[in-house]
Amino acid sequence: MSQVIGITGGIASGKSSVSQFIREELGFTIIDADIAAREVVEPGQEAYQEIVEVFGTDVLLTDTSIDRAKLGGIIFYDEKKRRKLNGIVHPAVRKRMLQQKETAFELGEKVLFMDIPLLFESKLTHMVDKTILIYVDERIQLERLMKRNGLSEVEAKARIDSQMPLVEKKELADAVINNNGSLLESQKQVKQVLAEWEVI
Ligand SMILES: CC(C)(COP(=O)(O)OP(=O)(O)OC[C@H]1O[C@@H](n2cnc3c(N)ncnc32)[C@H](O)[C@@H]1O)[C@@H](O)C(=O)NCCC(=O)NCCS
Ligand SMILES: Nc1ncnc2c1ncn2[C@@H]1O[C@H](COP(=O)(O)OP(=O)(O)OP(=O)(O)O)[C@@H](O)[C@H]1O
Predict the structure, then answer these.
(1) What radius of gyration, in Å, describes the C-alpha atoms of the chain?
(2) Which of 12, 40, 86, 119 lies at a 20 to 30 A Cα distance from 162?
(3) What pLDDT shows up at residue 142?
(4) Ligand 1 pocket check for 51: Cβ under 6 Å
(5) Domains of the chain, with CATH numbers?
(6) Mean of the pLDDT values across residues 158-177?
């Protein structure tokens, strides 16, 4: 029987690092919502035009692509605008991910993973059979986010605060990977969970 496992977490909690391990070391397909969200806003795509209509040409770079830093600087500080952007981008992302899932299953894959940051916030659990949460304490999340994106504490905090707290997500997930430690320790936990679920 085919199965979809959802990987979720918070911004900079380690989803991509864990997904990379599952793809490269364990050999599974990962469908990534962040990548889909980039593709559907490329010039010429449906969501692109809507973003320009709502947010104006101010959020475009000179090559006409979306200025992600600028758009982020708007929507992470304004819930109304964030909802507006989500309303434009999320339906297109869901559609794209479902197409990718169909293709993978048609190619004979039995288990695949979807990396969806806003799985619980957007109530997308119906898209997956089981959920794995990549958890970190908020202090570590803040530090890793500031470092990776070169953000100030205020900027990083605004991004974290735009999401459901990871302690709340813990209650909703089928399995929790504690990524406070090294990546190797997290990889061990992932293998343990997948072995318990008889996926590997
Ligand atoms: C605001 C945008 C332009 C900023 O782009 P940027 O390249 O800086 O960030 P990136 O897309 O890589 O996202 C990084 C992380 O930010 C968080 N995040 C992104 N969008 C949102 C959102 N609307 N609400 C809460 N958290 C978000 C996620 O944890 C995501 O993994 C971009 O994130 C975006 O278009 N967001 C709306 C679509 C969306 O919700 N994407 C997330 C999953 S579908
Ligand atoms: N166990 C770890 N130890 C040290 N650094 C880590 C660990 N896990 C992840 N990181 C680092 O923390 C940052 C965030 O990790 P990653 O990009 O995997 O998170 P993410 O959840 O995919 O983030 P986002 O949703 O924002 O794209 C990266 O710079 C990554 O190298």
Answers:
(1) 17
(2) 40
(3) 98
(4) no
(5) 3-195 (3.40.50.300)
(6) 98
CB-ligand 1 contact for 93 (6 Å cutoff):
yes
Question: Which residue is listed with tokens 């908020």?
Answer: 138
Give kind and range of the element (H or E) at residue 47: helix 46-55
* Residue 162 CA to ligand 2 centre (angstroms): 18
CA 112 to chain CA mean position, Å: 15
The ipTM is: 0.97
pLDDT at position 89, please?
Answer: 97
Q: Where residue 1 falls among pLDDT bands split at 50, 70, 90?
A: confident
| Ligand sitting nearest the alpha carbon of 13 | 2
Centroid of ligand 2 to alpha carbon of 25 (angstroms): 17
Token pair for 189: 């936990």
Q: Provide the pLDDT for residue 90.
A: 97
Q: Residues annotated in the binding site for ATP, as ranges?
A: 12-17
**In whole angstroms, what is the distance from residue 74 CA to residue 112 CA?**
34
